[in-house]
Amino acid sequence: MGFSGIDYAILVIYLIGTAALGFYFARFQKSARDYFLGSRDMPWPAVSLSIVATETSTLTFIGIPALSYGSDMTFIQITFGYFIARILISLFFIPAYYQGELYTAYAFLEKRFGARTRDFASGTFMVTRLFADGVRLFATAIPLKILTGLSYPTSIAIICAVTIVYTYLGGLRAVIWMDAVQIVIYLAGAAVAFMVILGKIPGGWEAIHTLAAQADKFKMFDFEFSWTTTYTIFSGLIGGAFLTMATHGTDQLIVQRLLACKNVRDSQKALISSGFLIILQFLFFLTLGVMLYAFYQTFPDRLSISRNDEVFPLFIAREMPTGIGGLLIAAIFAAAMSTLSSSLNSLASSTMMDWIKPYLRPNWSEKEELFFSRLATIAWAVLLIGVAAMAGSWGNVLEAGLKIASFTYGGLLGAFLLGLSSKRIGQREAILAMLVGLSVMLYVSTTAIAWPWYVAIGAVTAIVSGHLLRFAFSLVGREK
Question: For residue 323, what are the contacts with CB-CB under 8 A and spacing of at least 6?
Answer without folding.
Answer: 4, 6, 7, 10
